[in-house]
Amino acid sequence: MTLGSAIDRCRAAGLRRTKALEELLATLLDAARPMTLAELAASPRLVTQCDKATIYRLLHRLTDKGLVRRLGLHERAAYFALVVPGQHRDYLICTECGSIAPVDAPCPVHDLEDEIRAKSGFQNLYHELEFFGTCPDCS
Ligand SMILES: [Zn+2]
Ligand SMILES: [Zn+2]
To answer: Domain limits at 117?
Structure first.
């Protein structure tokens, strides 16, 4: 997804196009992995652009609109990732330290998705999975 189409999706959802929104979307797009609020606030694009509270409010509005996905166990270990149509990731989350990593294995759910699509008539079907456990550092 390009920054332009990410901005278009936000505007279609009723969000105002601001510099802060643009920089937040660009940062999430570049990162291509879930980021915490603290990481976002400290990232080069955002650190000069807006404070943590502004980023937090933006993330909540984006999550409400289904444009950003919130991952993780609780507020203190929350990660945020851009929802990109047609692309999905499954994640591994450590219940001890809250770390998060994409699953490094082929997704087995796509065959199931095809079956569900055929049986239910749903279009634009997608899924995202979260697996929980104890990471090597914590075990
Ligand atoms: Zn851990
Ligand atoms: Zn999957």
So the answer is: 88-139
